[in-house]
């Protein structure tokens, strides 16, 4: 029965349909990613609160990073919902084995799986864009302008010690 289901899934989606195991793996992976992102968000919020309580300002604004994490968490949650729906329909189709509803179920599974794969692609593109934007905004990878005057010379401390006759 499962093999038959796989064949039909392949036919509907136009590529090798995911098995139940791969769906479950994907689900657990997403859940772990959500937990990680939530933990990071919690840490950042706690850090922000601590600094505010002490009356200090943050060196850089953490809110865009927090917003990015929240978006990531929401996207992951949506992906999980779709994966669970796809898994559920596969389970039902396997349990019922009735051919009347079988075609409808499989079409639904095909649609769900296409939706999931499209969303995953969109999510990765969106994530890449978000990280790129975040890096550009925060400027964390900008070249430092330190020591541009002194290029090609020895550090000033060495020159000073030479002048003073030390060392």
Automatic annotation (TrEMBL):
Q: What residue spans carry the Basic and acidic residues bias annotation?
A: 120-136
Keyword Coiled coil included in the entry's annotation: yes
Q: Which UniProt keywords apply?
A: Coiled coil
Q: Which residues form a coiled coil?
A: 20-96
**Compositionally skewed regions (Basic residues) per UniProt:** 140-152
Q: Where is this region: Disordered?
A: 120-167
Q: What is this protein called?
A: Uncharacterized protein
Q: Which organism is it from?
A: Aquimarina spongiae
């Amino acid at each position: 029965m499962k093999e038959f289901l796989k064949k039909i899934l392949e036919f509907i989606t136009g590529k090798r349909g995911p098995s139940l195991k791969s769906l479950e793996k994907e689900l657990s992976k997403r859940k772990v990613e959500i937990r990680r992102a939530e933990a990071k968000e919690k840490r950042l919020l706690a850090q922000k609160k601590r600094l505010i309580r002490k009356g200090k300002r943050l060196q850089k604004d953490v809110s865009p990073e927090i917003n990015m994490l929240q978006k990531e968490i929401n996207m992951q949650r949506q992906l999980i919902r779709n994966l669970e729906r796809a898994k559920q329909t596969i389970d039902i189709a396997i349990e019922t084995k009735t051919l009347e509803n079988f075609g409808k179920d499989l079409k639904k599974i095909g649609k769900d799986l296409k939706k999931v794969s499209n969303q995953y692609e969109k999510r990765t593109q969106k994530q890449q864009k978000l990280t790129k934007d975040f890096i550009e905004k925060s400027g964390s990878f900008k070249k430092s302008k330190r020591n541009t005057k002194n290029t090609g010379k020895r550090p000033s401390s060495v020159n000073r010690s030479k002048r003073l006759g030390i060392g």
